[in-house]
Amino acid sequence: MKYEGSCHCGNVAFEVEGEFDSGLDCNCSMCRRRGGLLAFVPAENLRLTTPKENVSTYTFNRHVIEHHFCANCGIAPYGEGADPKGNRMAAVNLRCIPAIDLETLTINKVDGRSF
Q1: In angstroms, rounded to a whole number, what is the distance separating the alpha carbons of residues 115 and 98?
Q2: How far is Cα 39 from Cα 19, in angstroms, rounded to an integer?
Q3: Euclidean distance between CA atoms 42 and 91, whole angstroms
Q4: Where are the alpha helices (DSSP H) in the chain?
Q5: What torsion, rounded to 10 degrees, do the Cα atoms 6, 16, 43, 96 define?
Q6: Residues in Cβ contact with 84 at an 8 Å cutoff, skipping those fewer than 6 apart
Q7: Is 72 exposed, middle or buried (0-12, 13-18, 19+ CB in 10 A)?
Q8: Which of 4, 18, 56, 60 is deepest in the core (most CB within 10 A)?
């Protein structure tokens, strides 16, 4: 299924294709602070619908995950990185997709403190 999502002000917007019945609640230093609820899809399943120039990026620790956010409103709708096999992935913040009913999702806790 295809979904539309964005940051709060709409300056960073995207379309993502996937089936989302669960989300990851990560406790790394970044996710813990921002309160994201993540789902991973192949990078080609996420397409920006706003200019790439609207996206700001932050990396930390090993600098392997690009945490993308809106410099205007501060919301982080997605990130990019690679899975253990080297496949490019997008981590979508399900809280940034209004059509997803968060109450119906299975929430899985992930210990990301070593990321």
Answers
A1: 28
A2: 10
A3: 9
A4: 29-34
A5: 30
A6: none
A7: middle
A8: 18
